[in-house]
Amino acid sequence: MDAPYKAVEFIIENSAKYAEAKSKRIYISEFRKSKKALLMKEAMLNKVDAANAQEREAYSNQEYIDLLDGLAAAIEEEERLSWMLEAAKLKIEIWKTESFNNRRQDRASE
After folding, report:
1. 14 and 84 in contact (C-beta within 8 Å)?
2. For residue 43, what are the contacts with CB-CB under 8 A and spacing of at least 6?
3. Coil, strand, or helix at residue 91?
4. Using an 8 Å Cβ cutoff, are 50 and 40 in contact?
5. Rounded Cα gap, residues 44 and 38, in angstroms
6. CA-based diameter of the chain, in Å?
7. Rounded to two decimals, what is the model's pTM?
8. Staple 28 to which of 13, 71, 88, 99, CB 3.0 to 4.6 Å?
9. How do residues 31-82 score in pLDDT, each as one tens digit?
10. Which of 34, 30, 28 is closest to 78 using CA atoms?
């Protein structure tokens, strides 16, 4: 009987963590565009004139690669929390179904 309540508590306790993980993922994803522009500007200042060459320099820059690693970690955390929250919701649904079936069985045996 405690399972659904624990599942609800889990959702409440972890919803803020999930929101933070999603926020971080979106921020990094959006910042990626700014970082690319900054790195292309830096390449331009280093006398790389062609836009495609600047882009190549930006994408191969270690700072950009590190940013992508951070994005991957943020997505992983968001997905982990998302599936944990989904599992908690499923536990509640299972409990509801079992409770309904138990009530139905009790009525049938009366």
Report:
1. yes
2. 53, 54, 57, 58
3. helix
4. no
5. 10
6. 88
7. 0.71
8. 71
9. 999 999 999 999 999 998 899 999 999 999 999 999 999 999 999 999 999 9
10. 28
Pair of tokens at residue 73: 């970690």
Q: What is the CA radius of gyration of the chain?
A: 24
Which sign does the torsion angle of CA 44, 50, 55, 56 carry? negative
Q: In this structure, how many other beta carbons lie within 10 angstroms of the beta carbon of residue 16?
A: 9
How far, in whole angstroms, is CA 29 from its chain's centroid? 11
Amino acid of residue 57? E
Give the Cα-Cα-Cα angle 9, 12, 15 (nearest 5 degrees): 140
